[in-house]
Each structure stands twice: as structure tokens, then as C-alpha cells.
Amino acid sequence: MSAPTVYDVAERSGVSIATVSRVYRTPDSVRAQTRERVLAAARELGYVPSGNARGLASRTTGVLGLCFPDYADPDAESAAALTDDGDDDNAVMLYSDQIIRGMERAARRHGYALLIAASLDGGPESLVAKVAGRVDGFAVLARTVPTEDLDVISRRLPVVMLAGPREIDHLDHVEVANRDGERELARHLIDDHGLRRLVFVGGEADSPDAEARFEGFRQACREAGLPVPDQPELRVAMMTQAEGARAAEALLDRADGAGTARPEAMLFANDQMAVGALQALERRGVRVPEDIAVTGFDGIPLSRLVRPALTTVRQPIRRLGEEAAELLVKRLGDRDRDPVSVELPVALARRESCGCG
């Protein structure tokens, strides 16, 4: 059976070929109802947009793709400037930067270039359209692109899922031990420092890594005989330094307003939030770790440069990108190989923000 074309999608959805093209090139120019009808028809047919009318199957590009939302944190640079090593070029390298660097390094080893689609402008369908016709295969961060769209694309191109749960069984997948890492971190605070009033600040419920870390926190509380929360103490929409600062302020205000004891430890779902919390607590005259311990997760370079240095869980972020590229290259060499799911280990970094170091 020949691959579906733009003509098939136009016929199935009852629109012109030009409208189908605009859905993928400038989605905001098409009414939402029409756009959804076109995308639904494309999913049903298994249509993949291509920048080349010859189709994906008949050509190679020598390029691997990475679909990644833009996680830039404007507060990171100013935070680095406050450290003794503020001129360190690596100080503001965040999670996304390190994944990109790792994937680019591995791609280059195998003779590939890397194309990055790092913006969700126009929606996830537009993100896929920008990448799919220009690469031989791509890696995508979990929950960046709807599962049904990934399923369609994966019929034509190798796709590797980065982080989060393995949502599509026939795709290669690489993640880190989020749950185990957060469990070990919480148990360290409980067993080694004797802390009991712990709160967890997470991301949105559809953030798979943050949710896995929260599950590790819950497991540690359960094992220690502490109350097990159903939800994080607070959730934030964007896990940035500014949101971490606001969360720390809110937790202090909540305890003070209710006349209850403040938390003994604030565990944040990533380092960026934890760094923001350190700054907010300092402004409020709260000593870390003497009054409240603070921890993060990721092990970004900034975590060791702030004062006090941040206790965190180091994940091999660059290796995550490297492994994604390696899986893509292997899949390109053997499309029939069994799909694999790789879990990379993490390591606890005990530093001053919890009372170690």
C-alpha cells in the first residue's frame, strides 16, 4: 500500500489541499474546528507531513531530530552571577541544555547532525511537522507531543521517547530512576537528619518525571511511618526558579498564618525550583539548613555553586541525550530489532542545604 498523501487527507477531511498545508505550516491561520478535522483525518490515514514530496521512506537526511519544549529560565543567569563562580560558562546550563549537548555529541560520533525543535509555538502538531520531514529519526521528551501523533509518525520514522513512562510499547525509551532517587533522598533526610515534617513541591500532574519523584517521596514516608500525602504540598505550572521562590514563600505564609510549625524540609521536584527557594528563604531570614533543609533533583551545575550548596539527586542528563541518539542510530540500522527501554541510574549528592558537607 502506498503512503497516504496530502491529497488523501484533503479528501478525507473535506477541505482543500491548501488548507491541509496551512494546518501544518501556519496552524493559527486555520479555524480550530477545521484544523482538528484535518489532523484527525491525518491520524486515521497515517499521514506524515514532509518537506519533500518524494516522501520519507525514499530518502535519508543525515540528521537526527530532538523535540523539546523551551525550558529557558531567565532567572538562572542572575542566580549564577550571585555565586563565587558566576563567570563559569556551565553555571546556567540547565536540564535541556545538557540533553541537547549529550545527544549532539553522540550524533556527531555517528556522522549525524542534530536538528532541535525547541518551541511549542503553533502547538505540538506543528512541532512534529517541523521535524518529521527533515530528519531520519527523532527523540521526543515525554508529553511534548500527543501519543496518537507519535504513533502515526513512528510508522514512518524511528522515534525514541525521552524520560517519563513508556507510553507506546513499540518505541525505544530511555529514562532515569526518578522514583528510586527521590526515595533515597527523602530517606536520607528522615533517617540521617531525623526530620519528620517534610513537604514536596511538584510540577503539574501530567509531568511524568515530577510525578515519579513524588511517588518516591511517598514511598519514603510510608516506609518511615510518616503521613503519606495524596498530592504534593504545592504544584507549580513551570518548574523555574521564580516558581520555586514563590512556593517557598507560600509554604512559610501558610504555616505562619495557621500558627503551625514550619516544615523541617522542603523537597523540590527539580534544582531550578530549589535554587529559587534558597533565595526566597534567605530574604525571609530563614536559615538553611538550620531552620529548614532544602533539596532538589537533577544535579545541574548551578546546584553546586549556590550557597549553601544544594543537596540533590544527580541524574546523568548528558548521558540521557547520548543514549537517545545511540538508540536512534541502532534503530536506523535495524528497523526490526525489538524495542528496548533503558533506565539510567542516579546518585544522591549530599551537600550543605540539608546539613551535610
CATH architecture of the domain at 178-316 and 349-354: 3-Layer(aba) Sandwich
Helix share, percent: 40-55%
Instruction: Note the beta-strand portion.
Output: 5-15%
Major beta sheet, strand line-up: 2-1-3-4-5-11
Provide the succession of SSEs: HHHEHHEHEHEEHEHEHEHEHEHEE
Compute the gyration radius: what is it? 23 Å
Largest sheet: 6 strands, parallel
Tell me the number of strands: 12
The poorly predicted ranges are 51-58, 77-92
Q: What is the CATH first-level class name of the domain at 178-316 and 349-354? A: Alpha Beta
Q: What name is given to the CATH topology of the domain at 178-316 and 349-354?
A: Rossmann fold
CATH superfamily of the domain at 178-316 and 349-354: Response regulator
C-alpha end-to-end distance:
64 Å
Give the averaged pLDDT, no decimals.
85
Tally of DSSP helical segments: 13
Structural class: alpha/beta
Q: Can you tell me about this structure?
A:
- By secondary structure, the protein is an alpha/beta fold.
- Among the domains are: 47 residues, lambda repressor-like DNA-binding domains (434 Repressor (Amino-terminal Domain), Orthogonal Bundle), CATH 1.10.260.40; 145 residues, Rossmann fold, CATH 3.40.50.
- Helix content is 43%, strand content 13%.
- The chain contains 13 helices and 12 strands.
- The strands form 3 sheets. It has a 6-stranded parallel beta sheet, sandwiched between helices. The chain has a 4-stranded parallel beta sheet with strand order 7-6-8-9, sandwiched between helices. Strands 10-12 form a two-stranded antiparallel ribbon.
- About 7% of the residues have low confidence.
